User: Which sequence fits this backbone?
């Protein structure tokens, strides 16, 4: 039987980085949330969000959590997408791919028939995707910015920094469809 959105419990990895905005969006969508810092915090979760931040630091901190969290649906934004690429997904990313001058920018593009205003902050670029990876959105420069592979979703932009909840809703739908 499929779960209802209100019954979902989604954790946000809170070891480092910008996790609070994700918690706020999830609350707006009516799901239960919790901050994840230890393996124990992963118990009972239906999904996990890995936020933006500093992927090298986050990779060092996730240590033993990594093995347990890989079984969950995961949505990674920016540094979170880098973590997914380095550990779980068949995608190749380049960190800080927009260099220092252009390290932050905003761009409008389409996703599922909706306009998305994407905020890119020292964003990575997705250079290559494997056969099992679905490209869900490209930005106005035709660069891949949102991808899915099974239960993993990765964006190079920060959907938690706008009022738009579409990408988070998509993640929740992914979980519900598989429940
Ligand atoms: N540049 C960061 C990194 O490589 C990612 C930036 C972000 O998450 N906003 O980890």
Assistant:
């Amino acid at each position: 039987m499929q779960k209802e959105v209100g019954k979902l419990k989604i954790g946000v990895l809170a070891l480092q980085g910008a996790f609070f905005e994700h918690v706020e969006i999830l609350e707006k969508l009516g799901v239960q949330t919790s901050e994840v810092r230890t393996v124990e915090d992963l118990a009972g979760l239906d999904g996990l969000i890995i936020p933006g931040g500093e992927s090298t630091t986050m990779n060092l901190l996730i240590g033993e959590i990594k093995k347990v969290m890989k079984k969950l649906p995961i949505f990674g934004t920016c540094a979170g997408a880098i973590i997914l690429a380095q550990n779980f997904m068949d995608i190749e990313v380049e960190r800080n791919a927009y260099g220092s001058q252009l390290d932050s920018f905003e761009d409008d593009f389409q996703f599922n028939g909706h306009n998305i205003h994407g905020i890119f902050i020292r964003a990575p670029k997705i250079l290559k995707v494997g056969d099992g990876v679905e490209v869900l959105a490209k930005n106005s420069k035709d660069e891949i910015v949102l991808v899915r592979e099974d239960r993993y979703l990765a964006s190079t932009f920060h959907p938690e920094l706008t009022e738009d909840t579409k990408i988070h809703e998509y993640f929740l739908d992914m979980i519900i469809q598989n429940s």
About this structure: Residues 55 and 141 are 24 Å apart (CA to CA). The domain at 5-177 is CATH 3.40.50.880 (Rossmann fold).
